[in-house]
Amino acid sequence: MRFPLAALAVALSATASQAAVPCGGSFSGFVKKMKQEAVARGHAPSTVDSFFRTVRQDLETIAADRRQGVFQLPFLDFSQRLISQNRIQRGRQMEQKWDDVFERIEAEYGVPRGVLLAFWAFETDYGAVQGDFNTVNSLMTLAHDCRRPDLFRPQVFSAIELYEQGGLDPASTTGAWAGEIGMVQMLPGDIIESGVDADGDGAVRLKTSPPDALTSGAKMLRHLGWRPNEPWLQEVEVPAEMDWAQTGLDTKKTASDWLEMGVRPRSGSLQRPDLPASLLLPQGHEGPAFLAYPNFDVYFEWNESFVYVMTAAYFATRLEGAPVYDAGDPEPGLNERQMIRLQETLKARGYDVGGVDGILGEMTRKAVQAEQERLGLPADAWPTPSLLERL
Which residues form the signal peptide (predicted)? Predict the structure, then answer.
């Protein structure tokens, strides 16, 4: 699912007379104020009335937003759940079926087919499961909810613009619970910015046209910073001993520098020795290891979950021919209750863990790594029950 990090900047682009509608309060009052702001932004009153005529609050959207326990799984469990042999086989079939589309995409945008196939698989199972939430209802519900209103308010106004263009029906357009539409799940603002009529039928149809959906996804990735003809992730082997505190997204060295430190590609050679890369250990120094190149950072513009990003990037390499990872033998991690206890402990010590939610995100990893280093433990950012007891 695509959560744009620039949403707040878009929300603040309105003039002073178009002050942001506050979240919360009665939903009907919120709708009234959003309609007023839409008119102030230049939309015709009749269009605004028509757009909001069928809108209603959707409590199932709120429930789905709060129900994201799958992201609490560690990388090995999460990736093994999402990457099935059937998904790999379907990916091969889709690659062959739409080979000419992928060739055009790779030539024009420089986004490899494996990257798009992985998103297509994870987001909608190659278009089979696109979601049945009313898009406008979901966006308005999440904009009204006070957990992340600045993320979703701009998407409501983008949806109005999409409606004006004929690309959305407020009463019937459906998609994911967070307002994404189509085979690769794009938000209204992304569709306006990156939607492509790749099949030449005169319309951008992301729900029914694989060429439109895949090409639009590629254009969006380029807009987000994808660098053509560069790798994104490569599995490596690490030495038994090294300064584990240098691992993680914040530390970047050229791939050749990592080679000098004893890091070796698990198969083949370094894809780009000259590029900066981070050494990532999703389950510590005894689990799988990867070099993450600059394109890996673009994944976080698509989804902010570390475990999702790792899995999507890894699956893309599999679809491009990489072998199954070496799972290693990592120490057991923490269950949800233990992770919450860890986050509470780290927060009490002054760390910003990005919320006590039981999910091992990047901010929690940074805090864990700092404490491991302080305690003289391998600072690989992988929290274990023994670390929790030490803390």
Answer: 1-19
Cβ proximity of 105 and 113 under 8 Å: yes
pTM of the model: 0.91
The model's pLDDT over 321-338, given as tens digits with 9 standing for 90+, comes to 999 999 999 999 999 999
Q: What ranges make up the beta strands (E) of 238-362?
A: 253-254, 264-265, 276-280, 289-292
Kindly list the distances between the CA atom of residue 73 and the CA atoms of 63, 128, 283, 300, 334, in Å, as whole numbers in the listed order.
19, 24, 11, 18, 10
Q: Which amino acid is at 202?
A: G
- Give CA 306 to chain center in angstroms: 8
* Strands 253-254 vs 276-280: parallel, antiparallel or unpaired: antiparallel
Q: What is the pLDDT of residues 167-186, one digit of tens each?
A: 999 999 999 999 999 999 99
| pLDDT tens, position by position, 351-387 | 999 889 898 989 999 999 999 999 999 999 999 999 9
Q: Is the dihedral of CA 192, 193, 194, 196 positive or negative?
A: positive
Residues linked to residue 233 through DSSP beta bridges, in sequence order? 292
Cα distances from 275 to residues 11, 110, 195, 232, 270, in angstroms, run 35, 17, 31, 10, 10
Per 3-state DSSP, the chain is made up of helix, strand and coil in percentages (nearest 5) of 50, 5, 45
- CA atoms of 36 and 39, how far apart (whole Å): 5
* Beta strands at 276-280 and 289-292: parallel, antiparallel or unpaired: antiparallel
Angle at the Cα of 299 (from 298 to 304), degrees rounded to 5? 115
User: How many of the other CB atoms lie within 10 Å of CB of 294?
Assistant: 18
